[in-house]
Amino acid sequence: MMKIKFQIVMILFFLIIMNSLHFSQKDSLPFYIDPSLFDAVQNKTLGLNYAEESETFTVFSPGENDNKYNHGVVLFPFKNYLYAQWQTSAKDEDAEDTYVVFSKSKDGKNWTQPEILAPKWNNGIYTSGGWWSYKDTLIAFINVWPEQNNKPRGGYSVYAISADGICWSEFKRLLDINGEQINGIIEQDVHSLPNGRIITAFHEQPGLIVSPYFTDDPKGLTGWTKGKMNNLPYNDFISREIEPSWFYQSDGNIVMIFRDQAGSFKVLASISKDNGETWTTPAITNMPDSRAKQCAGNLPNGTAYMVNNPSGNKSRIPLTITLSKEGKYFNKAFLLRSSKDLQPMKFEGKYKREGFSYPKSVIWKEHLYVSYATNKEDVEITRIPIKNVEIK
Whole-angstrom Cα distance, residue 381 to residue 365? Predict the structure, then answer.
C-alpha cells in the first residue's frame, strides 16, 4: 500500500513539475502555441479541419507555352479590384529570365491574364516585393537582384506608382529617414498598425541580414527607420532569421515572426513594445514550421493569425491558419490546403517542389485572402469569411 501511495505522489509531483515548465515556457516566449493543436501523426492534415465556407481559386496555371515557374504571390486591394503580383520564369527558380507580373480580379474568383510589371533585365533579375496604397495611388514594390553571380548575394528595392493599375511610373529607390537609398530587399508583408505606422523588414547588404523597419510616411516610400534588434549568431552574409511577417497583441506589443535558416523547424519571434523602434533578440518558439516564408496579421476585431506550413520538417504540406484572441496564446487552427486536394506537379524545374509555398495574406471586403504558389507553378488563393475565423 505504501508503495502505491508513493507512486501516486511521484506521478502528481511529475505532473506539477511539467505543468510548471509549461507555464514557464509560455510566459517566457513572445507567444505560445497550444501543444495539442497539431497532431504530427496525421501528417496530411495535422488533425485539423477546413474553416467553414473556405474556397480556393486559381489565378494562373501554366500551359505548355507559358512560364512554368511562378512564385512569391502577394495580394492587395485597390479601387474595387484585388491585385496579385508574382515572379515568373520559363522553368527554374531565380533563373536569369525571372521577372514580375500581375493580375487583377473584381470578385477574387476570376482573374485577368498576367501583365508585365517589371520586365526581364539583362543585368540581373526582378522578384516580387509586395504592394501598398495611399488614397488614389497604388504602389508596387519590386526587389532588384543585380548580377546573379555576385557574392554575397543581395540586392535592393524599388517602387512604381499607378493611379489606375494600368499605367505605371518609372522605378525609384525607397529612401530611409535620412533621405538615403536603402540597400536591402524588402519583405513582401508590408502592413500598418492601427495608429498608421507602416512596418516591414529589409534584408540588408552585404548579403541578406534582416532588420525590422518602420515609417510614418503614409505612402511607404520615404522615412524608413531601422528598428534596433540583435540578430542571432549565424554567418557573415545571411541572418539566421529571414523572411518575416508580424502581428500585434491586445496590449499593443508587436510580434515579428521569422523563418529559421538554422533548421530548428520552428518559427522565430521577436517582440517590440515601442511601436517597432526596439526589438528583443529573436527566440525559438514552439510553433512548428517548414523553414519557409509565412505570413501573419490581425483580423478586424484584433484576432491575431499566422499562416504557414507547420509540418516540423521540409514539407510544405499542409497549409494552415493558426489563431489567437489576444496574440499571446494560439489555441485554434484550420486547414487551408492539404495533400488531399494537392494537384500533381505538371512541369519540372530547378528548386521546384510539391506543396503550398510562401503564403501572403490580405483582408478584402468580407474575407481573408491567402495567396501562395502551389508546386511553385500554379498561382492560387484560398479565401475564408472573416466571421468564420474571428475569435470573439
Answer: 15
